[in-house]
Write a structure and sequence with these properties.
With 396 residues, this protein is an alpha/beta fold. The protein contains eleven helices and 16 strands.
């Protein structure tokens, strides 16, 4: 594929707002997980005993008056993330170059604004949604996409992708296809997911939630920690002056099981091979791989198996979910931001909280950070149902 320029990128997570907050926390090995304090809507129900990566300040934030009909916690996070790292200025510059109708919006999410729907059902008035939540726009999966389009004034194609944990990685692939088809000249891609009862208790019902901070690829790992996040990247056709590039993407759907990966990681391998083929790169030219690495026993071992089947021992591969928690539909954009930070600054994260390597995982899995100049980085995002996406980024 023709490379696409990354003209701006940002993430807001439990580690803080914007790229520098993420970079500083990764470098200092300072995580954002805390004991679960998410309010419980059901009467007499105790909070789930687990650790979460919650974004601070969302409760005090208010959307501008002209966006009030989209009011909900998820869209407040979407708004907050939009204000970071000069993203608004970059969007304005793209509109000046191409016109608002030629800039697409492609947003990934897993649960969209379902927390607002949960609240509505908890406060039913004579069997109907309470008056303040009778706003159908926020009770649909497309809520994040239409909100971001309204908040930015962009008028190109608008898509919301909801493929579980691969959602905001697949936004890059969708944007690349839209630009290649000449349906737009630029695309604002991103992902937003906030925590809610359906997420916490749903994953817990699958016996996947750890009662302690998650430990990706540790021999004694017991499950994941959930988090929330929002982030964006602005993509355009590359020129000779662009420093950071999307070089390739790969997607697969192995459909092995609703919530368990293929035991040999065949779908994961296919996505990674497809991304490398589009990038025109052999595996040995990838310097850093941000793993999906959820810290569940099955997912980590299968991903490590797939990585070992494809990459040399020299690869530096790590999961950053010990810092942020698993941010679900926002994981793809957040961990793409981490891969781009590694490209820009040469700081390759290790793995937080993990101390004992799993002997079943290959030498590519690195617990300790490293620092060196790299040319290419990759991100894996694998979702329920075997819905997989891998991305390759590079420095020009």
């Amino acid at each position: 594929m023709a490379p696409l320029a990354i003209r701006a990128y940002t993430a807001t997570t439990a580690l803080g707002r914007g790229r520098e907050a993420q970079r500083r926390a990764l470098r200092e090995r300072r995580g954002g997980l805390r004991r679960n304090d998410l309010p419980v809507l059901a009467p007499d129900q105790a909070p789930l005993d687990c650790w979460i990566g919650r974004v601070a300040g969302l409760e005090e934030l208010a959307l501008p008056a002209e966006l009030a009909r989209w009011e909900c916690r998820n869209n407040r996070l979407a708004w907050l993330a939009l204000q970071q790292d000069g993203l608004r200025a970059a969007i304005d510059a793209a509109v000046a170059r191409h016109g608002a109708a030629r800039v697409a919006v492609v947003i990934g999410t897993s649960t969209a604004s379902i927390a607002a729907t949960e609240e509505g059902y908890a406060r039913l008035e004579d069997g109907a949604m309470p008056a303040d939540l009778r706003r159908p726009l926020i009770h649909t999966p497309h809520s994040p996409g239409v909100f971001v389009q309204a908040a930015t004034g962009l008028r190109g194609p608008c898509v919301t992708i909801a493929t579980a944990c691969s959602s905001s990685a697949k936004v890059f692939a969708q944007a690349a296809r839209l630009i290649e088809a000449d349906l737009c000249d630029a695309a604002l891609v991103g992902g937003i997911d906030t925590l809610c009862g359906s997420v916490l208790f749903g994953f817990n019902s699958l016996q996947l939630v750890s009662p302690e901070p998650c430990r990706p690829f540790d021999a004694a790992r017991t499950g994941l920690s959930l988090g929330e996040a929002g982030g964006y990247a602005l993509l355009e056709r590359a020129t000779a002056d662009d420093a950071l590039l999307l070089r390739g993407y790969g997607e697969s759907s192995d459909a092995h099981h609703m919530s368990t990966p293929h035991p040999q990681g065949l779908g994961a391998q296919l996505a990674m091979r497809d991304a490398l083929a589009r990038a025109g790169l052999p595996p040995e030219q990838v310097d850093y791989l941000n793993l999906h690495g959820t810290a569940t026993p099955a997912n980590d071992s299968v991903e490590a198996l797939a990585v070992a089947a494809l990459f040399p021992d020299s690869l530096h591969a790590s999961s950053t979910k010990g810092w942020t928690g698993h941010t679900l539909g926002a994981a793809g954009i957040v961990e793409s931001v981490f891969a781009l930070l590694a490209l820009e600054h040469g700081e390759l994260p290790g793995i937080l909280n993990s101390t004992t390597p799993d002997p079943a995982c290959g030498p590519q899995i690195r617990f300790e950070a490293a620092q060196r100049t790299i040319g290419n980085a990759m991100n894996n995002s694998f979702g329920f149902g075997g819905n997989n996406c891998s991305l390759v980024f590079g420095r020009a």
